[in-house]
Amino acid sequence: xxxxxxxxxxxxxxxxxxxxRRRSAGPADAGDPLxxxxxxxxxxxxxxxxxxxxxxVHAQHGxxxxxxxxxxxxxxxxxxGAAGIQVVNRALLARLLHDVEQAWRRGWQPAELxxxxxxECSARxxxxxxxxxxxxxxxxxxxxxDQRWQAQLTILDARVxxxxxDNYVTVWGDRQGLDRAxxxxxxxxxxxxxxxxxxxxxxxPAPGDARPATAAAPAxxxxxxxxxxxxxxxxxxxxxxPDEADxxxxxxxxxxxxxxxxxxxxxxxxxxxDQPVTRRIAVDNPYEAPKSLLLQxxxxxxxxRAVWGKRxxxxxxxxxxxxxxxxxxxxxxxxxxxxxxxxxxxxxxDEYGRNTTRSFRQSFLTAYASRxxxxxxxxxxxxxxxxxxxxxxxxxxxxxxxxxxxxxxxFEKQFPQLTHHRSTINNRQGWASGRAAADxxxxxxxxxxxxx
Length: 452
Known about the structure:
Layout: H1 3-25, H2 45-61, H3 65-77, H4 82-105, H5 110-120, H6 123-137, H7 147-156, H8 168-176, H9 180-196, H10 217-238, H11 242-270, E1 277-282, H12 288-301, E2 305-309, E3 314-319, H13 321-344, H14 357-390, H15 393-414, E4 419-422, H16 428-441, E5 448-451
Antiparallel strand pairs: 1-3, 2-3, 4-5
Helix pairs in contact: 2-3, 2-4, 2-9, 3-9, 4-6, 4-9, 5-6, 6-9, 8-9, 10-11, 10-13, 11-13, 11-14, 11-15, 11-16, 12-13, 12-14, 13-14, 13-16, 14-16
């Protein structure tokens, strides 16, 4: 082989080896077409913006003020000048949508994300969260979204009101009356909140996992029952006469108890598959603990189990769907009645002249919840005894026992470890007034409120 041939073969071998190295190096060296291996790869503007956002969220979490300020400055001016601002805007919205989706997969529902943003930050952060939810929902057909999610989206008025995503950050700031620095601050705070929200119990299918709802006769019957209950409770809330409120509320609970028994027997007779589900109900300040106690005793009276999550102020309730509807309706009505009675009752000052309004109202609501639990339990027990007499108890009792067991099994699986907080009563006048108000307003409850 001549010298020239040897050189050509050598050059071909080197080229083949270089090509093999490029294939082995993968995407990280795809931007190095000349084969200058070892040279640093320059990130694109978008990649750089994403890195800065990620560093800003980490700095926010670690309370690293100087690092956070540097990241904010880069996001305000944009990497690479004016053209980089639009790149940053695109990256911020994309990160918001991604983190909203991740929160959904960790169990959070739309209304809960917005509520968390408002509680942990401000109403403005809540509005940004609503927009992030609306933008992310564009990726899902309506048929793939659970009906309860759709209802939440409607209540939140979650809709895409801006014309183009690249302009969203700018027009959102204009709408809120904020300069770019303030907008960047709010967005980083929302992204930090989303990144640090813990995983919670999944209570229904996330978008994309829902199946189209099918109409069924029991659902129609449930709706008619709920409409009657709503009408009774509305009367209880509107009347100024305690005896009338008591009668309307007692009638509503009796109707719900009878419906629960009839529904259970119908399902057992038809062989339909009816399983417990989970629902979360918001319980807001002030006086979250006694309000949660009220929800707990109402849930127990309706064959459900409840646990209060203190940090984010919601109670998780496990039960059959119609029983959960009954629980939520009755709790809402009783809370309205309790609040009205509490604000009408006058607290006093103590022997040192200090105002006792807060301790009075805390004790009032705790006593109210305790007494309501006793009366609801008694009313439900009477309906059960009547049903057992009129129906075949050999069929009736096992059906209800099986449903109670099913609820307990699901609840204990979700909450294998619970702590209990015992309410403290330090205002006798508030306790007495709360008991009296519960006797006037409506229907065995425990003093302990479960915490997850």
